[in-house]
Design a protein that fits this description.
single chain, about 180 residues, alpha+beta, NADH Oxidase, four-stranded antiparallel β-sheet, 4 strands, about 40% helix
């Protein structure tokens, strides 16, 4: 499959099975994703895998950040359990006179997107989720983030359910988005 075909085929998968790639299966994909454009090769990102009860601890941190109680809190706490593997995508701001913070954030976003494409091509279902809790103190603390780090969200990864539809995306007219100066 060409890169163009892989990009056109990619869809977010909100529902996944309990299968998940092992760390040994993930490592070559992370290595490949690390070839993204990265001014000065700062590698201003890292990934944190959450499996098993780490997902439950994330749910508890999200509830703590929300201030919710009872039934609403239960639903929120269960959200990280929707996939057997979550990869937290963390941006690391590296002091640099040459590489602005926004460029480092772009590299971090690039890692998440390219990794989601590679996981999709490898047969895994993936969805990049973020939201208000990525900037909350309890979630920040759970992930052990330093002051110069920020959470960009999680790649929710699992197996593709049988009969999972590839779905369609609204196509754009690229002429509307490509202009000349």
């Amino acid at each position: 499959m060409s890169a163009l075909e892989a990009v056109l085929r990619r869809r977010s998968h909100p529902k996944v099975t309990s299968d998940a790639p092992t760390d040994d299966e993930l490592l070559p994909l992370v290595k490949a994703a690390a070839t993204i454009a990265d001014h000065a090769s700062l590698r201003p990102w890292r990934l944190i895998s959450l499996r098993g009860d780490a997902r439950e601890r994330l749910g508890a941190a999200m509830v703590q950040a929300s201030g919710l109680h009872a039934e609403d809190a239960e639903r929120l706490a269960a959200k990280p359990l929707r996939a057997p593997l979550l990869l937290a995508v963390v941006g690391i701001h590296q002091p640099s006179f040459k590489v602005h913070e926004w460029e480092q954030e772009a590299a971090t976003s690039g890692i998440a997107h390219v990794l989601s494409l590679l996981l999709d091509e490898a047969g895994w279902a993936v969805m990049w989720r973020s939201g208000n809790f990525t900037r909350s103190a309890p979630v920040h603390e759970l992930h052990g983030l330093a002051d110069n780090e920020q959470l960009f969200g999680w790649l929710y990864i699992g197996g593709r359910p049988d009969g999972a539809r590839e779905g369609s995306k609204v196509e754009i007219d690229p002429r509307e988005f490509l202009t000349a100066l």
